[in-house]
Amino acid sequence: MTVLSPTVRRLGLAFAALGVAFLGALLVIAGNPVGWALIAVGLPLSGALALAGDALGRGFGPTLAQRARALAAQTAPWMWFVALYAALKIPVPLWPQGFPVLGLASTAALFVAALLFVWERENAAKAGIMALVAFALGLAAEVAGSRTGIPFGDYTYAGAPAPTVLGVPLIVPLGWFALTLTATCLSGGRPWLAGLLMTLWDVGLEPLMTAQGYWRWTDPLGVWAGAPVENFVGWWGVGTLIAWIFTGLAPRLFGLRTLEWAWALPWFARAFPMGGGPALSLLPRAAVARADFRVVYAIEAFFLPGGLVLVGRFAEAAVTLAAMLAGLLFARRVTRRDA
């Protein structure tokens, strides 16, 4: 009989508690006030179980208190912004019309988290350059795609919520940096795999973002939420390109042992010291080095299908959950055996 690891038990129980809170949100939307009680119980219970769900029983309270103190001491600045990014998703079911505001704020928090993560592990120069490259390439691809149909197919941003940059909602290029960073971390620095993970992510983004009016497909060859096969090939290509640049700029950030293909920084950035990023943690940097930005992908594997359920896209939610879980399992297998 296989015994689940403590980490798996904690995460499983935490997600179950989040499911209780999610059910509460559905009840609130349906006008049932009992939903508020489920939310009030589910959210804090999820956090407690994530910390000490493997110590249920008499030792639960002391274990929870001990790990909470350790968590506060070990939490680096980028982690707080990841937490903010997740927290900003929670009110969406209770304030559906606020999705544009909450979505932009959540994505902006994730962008800052990604910036601080690279700054902490590498330096400010690499963080800024990687953010700029991803933002610029993502924006360029979206501008070209919405105006020419290349590389994603025929779609339009007409009617998309403000603010926009060159007609593209700001949330989109902001997302290209953070989403590609977490996919590249999860892929162990393999650009092709990072591109594939981005494509699986887009399986859920397409039905959700079209439902929210961020873009509208006009392609006659649409196969999924109006998007053609070309769209997913384009996502893989753009994601792979950005991930390839990321691994060239910061191979050690993604666990690559061979640095022979690493690119030199521009002359104006070479004086920046390695590390030296914001450090609000009470513990030495080595004590928090195990935490990784790949956790964002797992968070999205919960919230993205959940968002689709809330807008009534149940089949798309199931497909998205299956696709992202398959991506997580495949990445784990590849990074273990294809070293």
TrEMBL record:
Keywords: Membrane, Transmembrane, Transmembrane helix. It comes from the Bacteria. The chain crosses the membrane at residues 12-30, 36-56, 68-87, 99-119, 126-145, 165-186, 193-215, 235-255, 267-288, 308-331. InterPro entries: CruF-like. Signal peptide: none annotated. This is Carotenoid biosynthesis protein.
